[in-house]
Design brief:
By secondary structure, the protein is mainly alpha-helical. The protein is built from eight helices and six strands. Helix 4 packs across helix 5.
Amino acid sequence: MGDEYIPSILKVLDENNIKATFFIIGTWVDKYPNRVKEIDMKGHEIGNHSNNHIYFTRLTKSKIKEEVFTASNKIKKITGKDTKLMRVPYGDYNSEVIKAIEETGHYCIQWDVDPVDWKSISYEQIQQTVISKTRNGSIILLHNSSVETVKALDTIIKELKNKGYDFVKVSDLIYKENYYIDYTGRQKPLNE
């Protein structure tokens, strides 16, 4: 993934007065440090998405931690801020992965609305999927690699706002204790 759509994404977010969460891969940080700085300076949250974007269930606990710490250190070097959120590549997690991530001081994040915008689909398809599947507490997964996502973003935001939704950063949305992640990727309180 490149960085060519980041200015357009940031512009749409600014125009709609939204602060989002960007989950960033360490190797992307290496290539685009100025974009990381720009995202941070605009007040968006930066989360960890591993250093190399590999399947975590295939890794040892120490390798998982290495992936998390390496990416976090790269992000902190640019922003001066620690990451607290971790989105596992491919949504590839199990209880051992979650435990390893928690041991790094991160919250393991999953999403529940995924329009698979990284595939060759139209902005209309992206809009339709996101708007129809979003509900209270949803975490929407979008990627910065497609012009179709950029085309869809403003309409998604406006339609969801018209339905009464507010947009918040992931750290402002999630449970931080006494929760589990269900099979759909949503956090649930343990007493539910």
